[in-house]
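Self-study notes.
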Amino acid sequence: MTNFADEMKIGTVEFGEKPVFLAPMEDVTDIGFRLLCKRFGAAMVYTEFVSAEALIRDVKSTIQKLTISDTERPVGIQIYGRDIEAMVEAAKIVEQAGPDVIDLNFGCPVKKVAGKGAGAGMLQNIPKMLEITQKVVEAVKLPVTVKTRLGWNQQQLIITELAEQLQDCGIQALTIHGRTRSQMYTGEADWTLIGEVKRNPRIHIPIIGNGDIHSLSEADAAFEKYGVDAVMIGRATFGAPWIFSHEQLTLDEKIDILEELLRINVERIDEKRGILHTRRHLAATPIFKGIPDFRQTRIKMLRAETMPELLSILKEVRERLTSI
């Protein structure tokens, strides 16, 4: 076994052996969800990604994404953008919010981001990506990290060389999602290139692998096979913050946790938006999969507009689960 994970550090933040991180995800990794993931063992959590342009324009909803809690540390704030000055200015604003790490998003594949040259769009303009990275590193005292993909498409798998170039800019860790931008979230993540980057003798920063990890046992297999320093879990956490725990929870306990998430979100925002924030998790949670004739209940659950209504539906679901 390649035992890289023992001494993993990002800046002064030390992680235990085989740390598993919660990936930054838009409309998912708000503070309520991050706190639950942290409680169940996530070694590091990240905010939803933050638009540099919106941040420097002082857009209220974007500024709110910078709210972090000491309970969730270590926590990273991730920013994205295509303008060098805006990214530098945004990084300085983020530094004032006091995260442990500032992460630069060069991996988001969605059209409204990548299509405008930000996120994974930067994979088509490597000189600019490197200039942004270098300028941000120079502008802040906090550790700067990067998250990106293997390349723009299968014909441009540039990550091995790009990792060295980003390291030369002064980043302190690199997260690699094992897909190209053109793959979006389809097909299977290719970890072989992630392993290749990790095995490169010129790479001395931590390499974090991301893509298609659905459990701690799959994370363990990735550590074993590819020697990465940390593993990041994204979509498999939807409606399942307990994924970071080795503890075997009952269905009843899992529903308790989703109800707790609902309460946290309602208290933190308001009833209407708190329910909206929780719906994505209720729609995606693995615990309702396989329940016979569940479609109507799911529709009712996702249309609920008040907390008592939603809690009543979840109570019905509990009763159905105990009778199966």
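Second protein, same conventions, sequence then structure:
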Amino acid sequence: MDFEVIIGLEIHVEMKTKSKMFSASPVAFGAEPNTLTSPYDLAFPGTLPLPNKQAVINAIQVAHALHMKIDNELHFDRKNYFYSDLPKGYQITQNRRPIGSNGYLDIVIDNKVNRVEIERLHLEEDTAKQLHFPSYSLIDYNRVGVPLIEIVTRPCIHSSDVAAKYVETIREIVSFLEVSDGKMEEGQLRCDVNISLKKKDDKKFGTKVEVKNINSFNYIKIALEYEINRQKNELLKGHQIVQETRRYDEANKATQTMRLKTDSVDYKYFPEANIPIIKLSQDFINHAIESSNELASDKRKRYLQEYKLNDYDTSILLSNLAVARYFDECSKFSKHYKAIANWIIVDISAFLNKNAITIDKFNIKPKVLVSLIDEIETGKISNKIGREIFNYMLEKNVDIKTAKSALNITNQESDDKVIRALVNEILDNNEQSIKDYHAGKDRALGFLIGQAMKKSGGKINPSITSKIMIEELKRRK
């Protein structure tokens, strides 16, 4: 029996603003518990919320990147539920009018475009972090009020591959916009998955099961595939799927029941009386969009089409925002894009990995690296010499000029006239090698070039020398 998989995703993104959504408390990861709070965060009587302007700008930027309609009025609502992670007993969110609506994201897998329809993007505040122990629980209120955007798709995804790639793309968007670092391991990006199966010919969806708080991209795909197979096996046995909330068990690579959902929760939404409707001017919205950072998708087009990089190099450079920034900065000073990419991907990455540092801590600035690359690409120094200089610069933290002086390195001779004169001098003294070359003995060319390099003390450009040597040999037939 054939089943159609129906998947919908809800992604919560913590924004890295300086302060919280409705208070002036600072936002930071890893601070001592309950040190980043204010009377408002802890719901002291008489305190009032004040919306974070930067959080609104961030939400507009993400909504624009997702091709969404952006509301020109900011409406907030109360979502009422009493739980220990919400001091006020309610959460301020957007229910009736989200800031972004009716968007989409195209996910390309195996050259096929899969359009994911996005229903809404809304602003809200985060809840406290709970730490559970065998006989008690503790609450850290530092996270209360951290600005969130929630991005909700329509139930339009039909495979775990598309779902996982969609989440990865959302992370790429928010991190390149610098709205969030999107680190799932730190809870900055959290994903809830809704899954149901139905017979191919059925118009009605099957019973929906929710899998909560999956905290890695790899686990999203594994959890989805497990849950799809579980539901399929239940249906093939003639069993009904139970509407429930499940969690992903990393150790067993399986989903497990958390709680049943017999009825939908009534949150009794109503307008937040303490925050009036805020009108957003078109100038404010346009400025938020125009001040956005370049998206990874736009960088990708530039790298492939304008810089002529291949897919592999492009994907490596775009795997990390700081690396892409370093490459972009290098590209301001030179058009040797392929060489720059190679140095970053091979030599610089090897150094970063060996020393367990990130590229923003790398001590060779882009302009300095590019000047070294340009000397290699224009033939002033060889690749081998270039790497000696590079390693010395890293070790001693000096510039190219100082490194070359310390290593007693001078630029290669690249003047055609000078090299041609030397080549002819070598040929005049090696008539047998000329005969061997014309007899088809390949080693003769290598020998003659070697003699020229030896005569010059290794100071002539080898590629130019090889070219001129072949030209002069052809003349001496």
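Instructor comment on the second fold: The mean pLDDT is 91.
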